[in-house]
Write a structure and sequence with these properties.
Belongs to the prokaryotic/mitochondrial release factor family. The chain is of the alpha+beta class. The protein has 2 domains: about 1-110 and about 195-205, 2-Layer Sandwich (Alpha-Beta Plaits), CATH 3.30.70; about 115-175, 2-Layer Sandwich (Double Stranded RNA Binding Domain). The chain contains 4 helices and 9 strands. Strands 2-3-1-5-4-9 form a 6-stranded mixed beta sheet, sandwiched between helices. The protein has a 3-stranded antiparallel beta sheet with strand order 6-7-8. The chain is elongated.
């Protein structure tokens, strides 16, 4: 199975660009499904207006070997700058009609993978309510994901084994969230100079008559 993470961002663009992000995500998801690919919205940052997004993160999959080529073609058709031509729905007399958003693609297999071997577990004393028993016995478990430095402390149970399982589950979830944040930050950095985008470099031009 081939997987890729797609990020759509408005960078420093105005509110019209945040609207375009939301519309591009809709079109992208519809197009992917029509081509037999699996696609899901992993995370999105809402804009200040209803129906807008500052950025969005999607996971797209080719579930069969035959679909791998379709996935590659789909990705190359979106990666880069998207130019959206439309009158501003927010500023009636605004002359500008060209809005730009950025699309970047990350291969899931090239990202740092979750591996339990990268986790260091340490037992420690629980704190808080629970009486003398809780304080004297080291039932809490602290987990550290060494490559990222992420730490989680689990002390929900008096059972060290249960706390260990909870710690690993929470650490894995936190690692996934952290990894997505890294991707978002990386793409946002690339889009800091949003106004310097070249209009002729768009990989796709979409005209919206509103």
């Amino acid at each position: 199975m081939s997987k890729s993470i797609i990020q759509v961002t408005s960078g420093r663009g105005p509110e019209e660009c945040t609207r375009v992000v939301a519309r591009v995500v809709e079109i992208m998801m519809k197009e992917a499904r029509q081509q037999g690919l699996e696609i899901a919205l992993l995370e999105s940052k809402k804009g200040s207006l209803k129906g807008t997004m500052l950025s969005a993160m999607l996971l797209v999959k080719a579930t069969t070997p035959a679909n791998k080529g379709i996935l590659n073609t789909f990705i190359e058709g979106w990666r880069g700058t998207i130019q959206w031509i439309a009158q501003s729905p927010y500023r009636k007399f605004h002359k500008r009609k060209n809005w730009f958003v950025g699309v970047e693609v990350y291969d899931v297999h090239q990202q740092v993978k979750w591996d339990i071997k990268d986790v260091k577990l340490e037992s420690c004393r629980s704190s808080g309510p629970g009486g003398q028993h809780v304080n004297k016995v080291e039932t809490a478990v602290r987990g550290t994901h060494l490559p990222s430095g992420i730490q989680v402390l689990a002390m929900d149970s008096r059972s060290q084994l249960q706390n260990k399982q909870l710690c690993l589950e929470r650490l894995a979830a936190k690692f996934t969230a952290w990894q997505l944040e890294q991707l978002v930050a990386r793409q946002q950095d690339q889009w800091q100079e949003h106004n310097e985008l070249e209009r002729g470099s768009a990989v796709r031009v979409i005209t919206d008559k509103l």
